[in-house]
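The authors assume throughout that readers already know how a fold can be written as discrete tokens. For illustration, here is how one protein appears when written out as sequence plus structure tokens.
>
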Amino acid sequence: MKKLAKILTMALVGAFVVSVFTACGGSKSEDKLVMATNATFPPYEYVDGDAYKGIDVEVAQAIADKLGMELDIRDVEFGSIIAGVQSGKFDMGMAGMTVTDERKQSVDFSDTYAIGIQSVIVREDSEIQSVDDISSANKIGVQQDTTGDIYSTDDYGEDSVTRFKAGTDAVQALVSGKVDCVIIDNEPAKSYVAANGGLKILDTSYAEEEYAICVKKGNDELLGKINDALKELKEDGTIDTIVAKYIK
């Protein structure tokens, strides 16, 4: 009997340890803020060695710090971010994402944290010298599922737009003459032009838009916490400092 009692006691202790370990594991995962991004969009998000860097990365880290959470960054295709947030795979999406009426049907958005400009990149010898010169006869390169894709398709038609998985791919197509221009956010455009000779950005902008963070529809608790954190980060100058670090 004593031996049986000892075995039962050890089993109970083992079960308790497993239970505590499982509970701790669960609470740890709940302390993570999982952010989906597309790290091909400098200076907002990009990969530098083994690290993620950029405006969105630093703002997200500052939000996570405010919330007492660990930031977990997942680098995915831009077009899969909203679906992943909808399904609960990611807590939030942050990738220089513009607030649009169409996207609002799928996800909720935080307050704006940055203003973006859609610009047009052309070759230096291009006949396209202003936004007004672009027509449906041109081949327009875009990163798929971005607002550059949405706006240009609306303006010039499906047949005029060539979609690429990454902005870098669209720019390489421009360099090689496969497209006549690339419509993309201004800050990444600057980086692409600096890295590729023979390109320039048109003086006039194509569109202006607001960047925000997307969360699952109805997740008011997380949205409220993110907005509170953003408000504090704006008021104490943190966001301005981060932006100034990357945009001169």
Q: What stands out?
A: The CA atoms of residues 112 and 199 lie 31 Å apart. The first strand starts at residue 32 and ends at 37. The two ends are 78 Å apart (CA to CA). The chain has a mean pLDDT of 89.
